[in-house]
Specification:
The protein is mostly helical and 178 residues long. Helices cover 70% and strands 0% of the residues. It has a single domain (3-176), classed as Hypothetical protein af1432 (Orthogonal Bundle). Bound molecules: zinc ion (ZN). Residues 34, 58-59, 119 line the site of zinc ion.
């Protein structure tokens, strides 16, 4: 299958899996907007094709109940493994999950770390453009600082993604600092 066919297949798969989901922001954007943004950030910054594919699928296990076996069957073991690496253990309390995500990022594969950076860029952009209605400035700032702690453990692989993250981070910190 050509790369274009593989990527459009992955985006179509994600669109079907996330069909009923919306982002938490006040504009409640369709969830697939986030997925396409993450895949696009990876492609634009010349990440390896496996990372772009995993970017398109990165929330399917965590948020839609898709299994590793299902991804392996549709997209191969390598892509399925990267997506699994990008999946938090939802049985843990939220704070613990967030702490582990930052701590564990350093031990992930290169592709998973690039997906992490792209995911955080998209999330920070969402908070800037359409924040959840009930989030205070302090809570937004706290999210930015935590996202940076994850990204700081993913550095040294893709200067373009890092630069885009740092630019977005700076805007938020200026905007939300007390
Ligand atoms: Zn995501």
């Amino acid at each position: 299958m050509s790369d274009v066919a593989s990527l459009t297949k992955a985006l179509n798969f994600a669109a079907q899996k996330h069909v009923d989901q919306r982002r938490k922001g006040k504009n409640a954007e369709p969830y697939i907007n986030h997925i396409i943004e993450v895949a696009s950030l990876l492609a634009e910054n010349k990440a390896p094709f496996a990372a772009v594919m995993a970017g398109a699928l990165h929330d399917t296990i965590e948020d839609t109940g898709t299994t590793h076996a299902e991804l392996k069957c549709a997209f191969g073991e390598n892509i399925a493994d990267i997506v699994r690496e990008c999946t938090d253990d939802k049985s843990l309390p939220k704070q613990e999950r967030k702490r582990l995500q930052a701590e564990n990022a350093a031990h992930k594969s290169d592709a998973a770390r690039m997906v992490k950076i792209a995911d955080k860029i998209s999330n920070l952009r969402s908070i800037l453009a359409s924040p959840p209605a009930d989030w205070s400035g302090a809570r937004k700032l706290e999210y930015f600082v935590w996202a940076k702690s994850v990204v700081d453990n993913c550095r040294g692989l893709n200067a373009g993604l890092e630069k885009e993250f740092d630019k977005t981070y700076k805007v938020g910190v200026e905007k939300f600092k007390p």
